Amino acid sequence: MRINQHITAKNLLPDLARFWQVSGQKITDLNKNDDPAKGSPVFTIEGKYTTRGWTEWTQGFQYGAEILQFDATGDETFLAMGKTNTVAHMAPHVSHFGVHDHGFNNVSTYGNLLRLMNEGRIPENEWERNFYEMALKVSGAVQARRWIALPSGGYIYSFNGPHSLFADTIRSLRSLAGAHQLGHSFMGEGDVDTSLLARLIQHAKTTADYAVYYGEGRDHYDLRGRTAHESIFNLNDGNYRCPNSQQGFSPFTTWTRGLAWIMLGAAEQLEFLATVGDAELAPLGGRDAVEGFLLKMATATCDFYIENSAADGIPYWDTGAPNLHLLGPDYLDRPADPFNTAEPVDSSAATIAAQGLLRLGHYLKDDKYIQAGLTVMKTLLGDTYLSLDESHQGLILHSVYHRPNGWDHIPAGRSVPCGESSMWGDYHAREAALYVQRLANNEPYLKFFI
After folding, report:
1. In 3D, which of 103, 266, 282, 267 has the Cα closest to residue 179?
2. Rounded CA separation 347/343 (Å)
3. Of 107, 126, 112, nearest to 78 (Cα)?
4. pLDDT tens across 318-370, in order?
5. Which residue in 106, 260, 267, 344 could disulfide with 352, CB within 3.0 to 4.6 Å?
6. What is the pTM of this model?
7. CA 48: distance to chain centroid?
8. Would you say residue 80 has pLDDT above 90?
9. Distance of CA 284 to the CA centre of its chain
10. Residues 26/395, Cβ–Cβ less than 8 Å
11. What is the CA radius of gyration of the chain?
12. CB–CB of 315/349 below 8 Å?
């Protein structure tokens, strides 16, 4: 990536104003034309949002987007929309025992609404507050229940099964963090009371130890900052067995959306832990150790993203995708080409990574990461990626979902997916845009926790 050293958050305000105008039109269209009975919208095909039965992990992004739109613009139409849809459709996600996605679905809806009340952006209402808090408490405990204990700690296992830790799940730790701050815990058999903070830290440590590489000789392909989408464990003895990938090219290449989840999840947890007292962290290894492994993970992955994205900050879908060589040896020295004939870019990885870079930069007071995040945002807000066609329901173009399974739409006359959007990409673009807008306007810092 070629980091723009001169751009500021304020420079992006005109682009953000256009972004929110386009965003509002897309949200209104989807709210009017989507049928929830058919399942959650996942990604677009020829510009129309479609469903894909795998797990229901995107509905919170759909309704959370409505809440973010209100947050950014003050238009109460979108607040009413987000509240109505959260009440009508999100309850099953609160008690969903079968997924690792609680931080996606429930923090994006109930969590955003509680945050707005805490900020004084929506009126204080005791019963409404209790409703949001109860949802978040239950969600955190349900997520924490999805647990595999290891001799070294443990992890929240993915929907793929108890042997499987996904890189994605580090951002679902938001559900445990929020519930912990609300005074909740996980109650198990025999009334055993388990700290949600403890499980958060243990999962983050397992992710840091096995999903991230540090150039320390772990295997022949150990490159600092590289990540594995999935980590596999032997449940008979608790030992780690191997890396794997469900959505990337291979276990030994880096699926860039998995990389982005870790970048953002690690940076966000560093911010959260700054609010946790030393006494709470002492039995969990102590502040220095906990923040140390999170910082090591965050800086390694953010550095890897900077080094392995195209000049404009957009990554290709996997850094080891088999046809990248067809783009020439200098393909990272040019802006990403979503219309190339070799391998797709993934703008959704960029929407997530941008916020990770910005949050890490803010945490460290390091301009390198801040400027890198702003560079990515400038690209995403431009004409190549912002969906300006009102008939297209997506907001950010050139997202991919599952390249190995061939789920992504390839337009006629092209050889790789392009021109489509995803619910997670659109949501995280809005979240990152709101983050930057608040910085530019000297408004309260955007965070999920109290």
Report:
1. 103
2. 13
3. 112
4. 999 999 999 999 999 999 999 999 999 999 999 999 999 999 999 999 999 99
5. 260
6. 0.98
7. 23
8. yes
9. 25
10. yes
11. 20
12. yes
Three-state SS letters, the chain: CCCCCCCCCHHHHHHHHHHHHHHHHHHHHHHHHCCHHHCCCCEEECCEEECCCCCCCCHHHHHHHHHHHHHHHCCHHHHHHHHHHHHHHCHHHHCCCCCCCHHHHCHHHHHHHHHHHHCCCCCCCHHHHHHHHHHHHHHHHHHHHCEEEECCEEEECCCCCCCEEEHHHHHHHHHHHHHHHCCCCEECHHHCEECHHHHHHHHHHHHHHHCECCCCCCCCCCCCCCECCEEEEECCCCEEEEEECCCCCCCCCCEHHHHHHHHHHHHHHHHHHCCCCHHHHHHHCCHHHHHHHHHHHHHHHHHHHHHHCCCCCCCECECCCCCHHHHCCCHHHCCCCCCCCCCCECHHHHHHHHHHHHHHHHHHCCHHHHHHHHHHHHHHCCCCCECCCCCCCCCECCCCCCCCCCCCCCCCCCCCCCCCCEHHHHHHHHHHHHHHHHHHCCCCCCCCCC
Place of tokens 């000049």: 311
Token output for 160: 């793929």
The answer to whether the CB of 188 falls within 8 A of the CB of 209 is no
Give residue 187's Cα distance to chain centre.
28
Confidence check: pLDDT of 290 > 90: yes
**pLDDT confidence bin for 153, thresholds 50/70/90:** very high
* Side chain identity at residue 328, one-letter code: G
d(CA 191, CA 345): 49
CB atoms within 10 A of CB 406: 9
| Rounded distance between C-alpha atoms, residue 82 and residue 65, angstroms | 8
31 vs 41: CA distance, rounded Å: 11
Burial grade of 170 (CB within 10 A; 0-12, 13-18, 19 or more): buried
First-to-final CA distance of the chain? 34
d(Cα 53, Cα 126) in Å, to the nearest integer?
37
The span from the CA of 36 to the CA of 352, in Å, is 25
Tokens for 49, please give them: 């949002």
Residue 127 corresponds to which tokens in the numbers above? 């019963």
Q: Reply yes or no on domain 10-440 having CATH 1.20.1070.10.
A: no
Q: What angle do CA 322, 327, 331 make, to 5 degrees?
A: 110
Q: What's the distance, CA 61 to chain centroid?
A: 10
Mean pLDDT within 153-160: 96
Q: Residue 15 is which amino acid?
A: D
Domain-wise residue ranges, the chain: 10-440
